[in-house]
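About this split. The held-out portion is used to measure sequence recovery: a designer receives only the structure tokens and must propose an amino acid at every position. Recovery is the fraction of positions where the proposal matches the reference. Here is one held-out target exactly as it appears in the evaluation file.
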């Protein structure tokens, strides 16, 4: 698996621009540990500092491309992980993408138009469906979560976003300025693709 330094650099492949605090929230590391890793990565040319935030450089991505096969060798050879990824891509991931579209748009007279969120019942049904898919995803990804605790952390963060959405904070469904279901799902998907050495489906 990734050591703490590698994990810090890796977190910038999941969030394109982030502060040490934001990256620590993704990985579960102490902020001080992340700050130390970022300082080391900047010195190595793997990360750039930008007004208190950080982003990965092409050299950083190249470095990780050399790290992943070693770090995740056992996981990638596990047939249960392979089966879990197939189930994820063909099932729950497509369901979440479809539900996100249904959240952002509604059908009016046979055409899709922007959802103004004036129909509370419609929105509540989408959030309820997302909750059921989240429960199913936890089961589908169990082989990965057993191998890498960060997968469970992503699932917990998605659950937190759902709870806030259910409580009326609807930005937590697909908002880009908060850790919404959609935002954290994207991060989780990117993470497990890198774990398993797969490309993101078109």
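Reference sequence for scoring:
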């Amino acid at each position: 698996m990734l050591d703490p330094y590698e994990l810090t650099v890796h977190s910038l492949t999941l969030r394109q621009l982030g502060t040490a605090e934001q990256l620590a929230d993704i990985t579960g590391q102490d902020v001080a540990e992340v700050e130390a890793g970022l300082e080391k990565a900047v010195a190595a040319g793997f990360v750039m500092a930008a007004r208190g935030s950080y982003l990965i450089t092409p050299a950083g991505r190249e470095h990780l491309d050399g790290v992943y096969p070693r770090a995740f060798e056992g996981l990638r050879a596990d047939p249960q992980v392979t089966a879990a990824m197939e189930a994820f891509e063909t099932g729950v991931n497509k369901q979440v993408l479809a539900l996100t579209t249904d959240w952002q748009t509604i059908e009016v007279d046979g055409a899709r138009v922007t959802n103004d969120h004036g129909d509370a019942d419609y929105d509540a049904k989408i959030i309820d469906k997302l909750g059921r898919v989240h429960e199913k995803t936890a089961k589908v990804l169990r082989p990965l979560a057993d191998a890498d605790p960060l997968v469970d952390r992503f699932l917990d963060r998605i659950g937190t976003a759902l709870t806030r959405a259910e409580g009326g904070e609807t930005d937590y469904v697909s908002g880009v300025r908060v850790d919404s279901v959609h935002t954290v799902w994207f991060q989780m998907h990117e993470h497990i693709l890198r774990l398993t050495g797969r490309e993101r489906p078109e």
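Annotator remark: Strands lie at 47-50, 53-56, 105-108, 111-114.
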